[in-house]
Amino acid sequence: MSHSQCSEAHASAIQAIWATRQPRRRRHHHHRPHPSKEAALINAAGQYWVRKEDIFQRRNYILRPKFTCEKKVTWKGSPLDASSVRVLDFVNYSTDLESLQRMIDAYCPDTQRLVCIRRIRTGSEELRTLFMLSRPGTRGFESGVWNPCPPVLEVFKDEHNPSITFVVMPYYRNMQPRQLGPLSFLGYCELVEEAGSILKSLVFFHRLDVENIY
Q1: 159: in domain
Q2: pLDDT means per 10 residues in the chain (214 residues)?
Q3: What stretches of 25-160 adopt beta strand conformation (E)?
Q4: Is residue 213 part of a domain?
Q5: What are the start-end ranges of the E strands in the chain?
Q6: Tell me, what's the pLDDT at 39?
Q7: How many structural domains are present in the chain?
Q8: Which residue range(s) make up the domain with 45?
Q9: Rounded-to-integer distance, Cα 138 and Cα 130, Å
């Protein structure tokens, strides 16, 4: 595995962990709704992001439809409104309702790259932590410790609801367990490299007093 592949895999893993940490803690205390209710929530999430499309376009971020409005789409057997949910990132979050509500992918013509736009409560602990992890001195090797976190590319508030802040970050595809392959196919050097990267990540978070990452 090359250094760039390793970095991308770990950035993807950290992004996935960060994205689901808060929702998973909430799910500890609440029962999951019925699939039909989840489907209604997903339809509402898709409609929410589509309503924000003009705001994103003014920032030069284009939402990406994944399929046509005529396509039949379901969630755990319950039908979805394709015209509402066609911009959602089902590739990364095919079973994660909260992430579909909180994150959307988009294309930036200026950089010709995909980005992830996250919806975060203005002034929240999550937003303050993201700023801390992306401030000068913690990015790259400036702090003397490898930073495994995806950088914050841009931050802007919802024009219609200032209590919501949108955070733009690079888009990474989450590594699914089946994509990693059986452990027996990993070479000794790759295992050592992966273990070293994880340890360096833990050192980085420890120095910044960031807890409960995993």
Answers
A1: yes
A2: 48 47 47 83 95 96 92 90 93 87 95 95 90 66 62 93 95 63 58 73 70 60
A3: 62-63, 73-75, 78-80, 103-108, 113-121, 154-158
A4: no
A5: 62-63, 73-75, 78-80, 103-108, 113-121, 154-158, 161-170
A6: 93
A7: 1
A8: 3-207
A9: 11
